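FAQ

Q: What does a record look like?
A: Structure on top, sequence underneath. For example:
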C-alpha cells in the first residue's frame, strides 16, 4: 500500500474538483486529521498527507520571517529529511522521544487566503501541549500552510510553524513535530 493510500484508508479527505472550490470545512478536516495523527504518533500516515516536493520549516523564534537559505532555522525539511525524521522518531534512537511524549495539538482560527496558482494558502493558530514524564510544555504559534490537490485530494505542499514564544528556555527543545 502506498503512503497516500495509507492516509486515505485512515480518514479519507474528500475529493475536490478544483483548488478554488475548497471550503474552510474541508481544510479544517485536513488540519484536524493531521493533528490527530500527530497526537496518536501515526507519523507514517501523517507523512502521507504531504506532497513529494513538500517543505516543512520552523524558523527561530527571534526571526519568524527567516529564510532557510540565509537565516538560521530550527527545522528545514524536504520530504526526504521529513521521512528520515519520522523514521528516527519511530525508533528508539530518538532518545528525547523514547518513550514518546504525549501531545495534544489544538488548531484554531483557520483562514483561507486567495488561491495562488495551484496552491491554497492557509493560516491557522496552534497550541501544542506536550507531556513528558512529570513535566508539561506548551508551544504556541501560527501555521502557514500551502495546500495543493494531488489526485483530487488536499495535501500539504508546505507548512511553516512560526512560534509566538519569546524564548524556548521554558520548553527546552522542539524535538517533537509541531
Amino acid at each position: 500500500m502506498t503512503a497516500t493510500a495509507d492516509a486515505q484508508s485512515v480518514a479519507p479527505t474528500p475529493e475536490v474538483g478544483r483548488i478554488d472550490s475548497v471550503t474552510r470545512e474541508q481544510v479544517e478536516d485536513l488540519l484536524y486529521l493531521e493533528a490527530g495523527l500527530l497526537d496518536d504518533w501515526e507519523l507514517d500516515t501523517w507523512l502521507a498527507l504531504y506532497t513529494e516536493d513538500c517543505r516543512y520549516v520552523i524558523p527561530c523564534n527571534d526571526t519568524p520571517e527567516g529564510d532557510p537559505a540565509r537565516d538560521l532555522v530550527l527545522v528545514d525539511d524536504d520530504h526526504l529529511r521529513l521521512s528520515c525524521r519520522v523514521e528516527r522518531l519511530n525508533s528508539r534512537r530518538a532518545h528525547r522521544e523514547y518513550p514518546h511524549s504525549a501531545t495534544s495539538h489544538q488548531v484554531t482560527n483557520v483562514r483561507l487566503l486567495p488561491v495562488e496558482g495551484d496552491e491554497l494558502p492557509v493560516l491557522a493558530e496552534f497550541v501544542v501541549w506536550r507531556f513528558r514524564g512529570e513535566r508539561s510544555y506548551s508551544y504556541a504559534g501560527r501555521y502557514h500552510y500551502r495546500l495543493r490537490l494531488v489526485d483530487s485530494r488536499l495535501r500539504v505542499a508546505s507548512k511553516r510553524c512560526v512560534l509566538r514564544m519569546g524564548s524556548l528556555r521554558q520548553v527546552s527543545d522542539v524535538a517533537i513535530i509541531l
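Q: Is there anything notable about this one?
A: The chain has one domain: 3-163.
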